[in-house]
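Solute carrier family 22 member 6
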Amino acid sequence: MAFGDLLEQVGATGRFQVLHVTFLCLPMFMMASQNLLQNFVAAVPPHYCSEHRNLSQSQLSPEEALLITVPLDKSGKPERCQRYIAPQWHLLAKNRTSNPEEEENTDSGFDVDLQGCTDGWSYNMTEMTSTIISDVGVYTSFSKLSNQPFTCVLVGSIVFGSLADRYGRRILVLISNLVMAIGGTCAAFSTSFSLFCLFRFVCGMALSGSGLNSLSLILEWIPTRVRTVVGTGTGYCYTIGQLILAAIAYFTRDWRRLTLAVSLPFYVSFLYSWWFLESARWLVLKNKSEQALKNLKSVARINGRSEEGNKIDLEESMKKELSCSQGSYSMLDLFRTPTMRTMTICLSAVWLSTSFAYYGLAMDLQKFGVDIYLIQVIFGAVDIPAKVVITLSMCFAGRRPSQCAALIMAGVAILLNLVVPYEKQTARTCLAVVGKGCLAASFSCCYLYAGELFPTVIRQSGMGWVSMMARIGAMVAPMVLLLDDYIPWLPGLIYGGAPILSGVAAIFLPETLGVPLPDTIQDHLWNLMNNL
């Protein structure tokens, strides 16, 4: 694995690496905003059935119209999805003559027919100016939006992962940033719900392409000794991005303006992305030695090592890698040999369960009964200490024990919530925050871990595969909540059990602490033999 020596020759931690990592990380600050945007643009405001059409010309106050239109539920609040078939005028008369203590029972004793919200819903928009829910309708949009972000990221993982191994990382980063910017802008100005879903789908695909390829470009231009700190440091961009989203959403209560606000920065990212250099590792393994040499000399010049750059003999230095990289590679190579197959299956389990439990918590903030802006800040802030701990753990204990511990601790925290009474919301929220922090640590670890395990020739195919598994987990997560109507404790058992099982599966992964980044499948096997 001579590329590490070449990187040291041109400067492994010089000015180029600082600028390269910084500019690649900047778009990641807004990726959390795109990924969790649904919490705000698709927030469900308090609502109830709209009044009957024949009441629109009446002189009734909104409170009086609500009284004769919508019955009360068991908690004394207006029903969300049912109304009287006909206005109950007698309730209005009784309300004017009854005592306040009797008002809550004004509709008791009457057996009246009810219907759905045939004239739509009315919304209490005191916290927000508008959401896509209030513009389109509660169940029409919410049921579709719950899984839509993950479906598109899943597709993007497959498409952009395979394309990156064939056409390079840099061009996919460029395309992804541009598509993200245009797709987000179009979503903000959508004139129909279908168009909104279409453009958000495009954004989700681009989100996957930008994230995966940016991480690979970072890992493939830095040396082994700083890989842990730099690799996990990129995760802090996502963490801070969650706090940025909460701040932007708090001051931008209109869903169109919010969507536009988190999309415009990607135009800037697209413009400066032209400066990025393609991965020299990938270029060498694709028999593009001339361009690889040119890029290495550019790095040497930026790092103030022009003389060392001119002495590079690429053909001689990477003779073994060039001989081993002949032929074409595809996603099938992830399963072609027993070693690669075992590693891919274990990584798939880790990514799927991490995403499954993570988004089961993070994508339904309203269930905690706390202000969604506050809980977004709490959920984002807990990632900071969690990622500090996982970074130190990966540096000293290694990737494998860190990955196992993060998943098992997350599962235990979620399972403990099953025995806490529902009335103790503070305790339940605290356990959920601990679980979410452990899952964020697991995400930070598995991104770096997978990038180190997959060799360069199929790294993006591998990252695309495990990212696809993560999106499958995220898509399944909301569906598991439906089981709550039948067996209330079952969703928590599944959310907590999955991370524990995948934490056990992670034991079978090889350790990569201090191991050079593999360029070929043969390099990966050599690392594995030295690790035994």
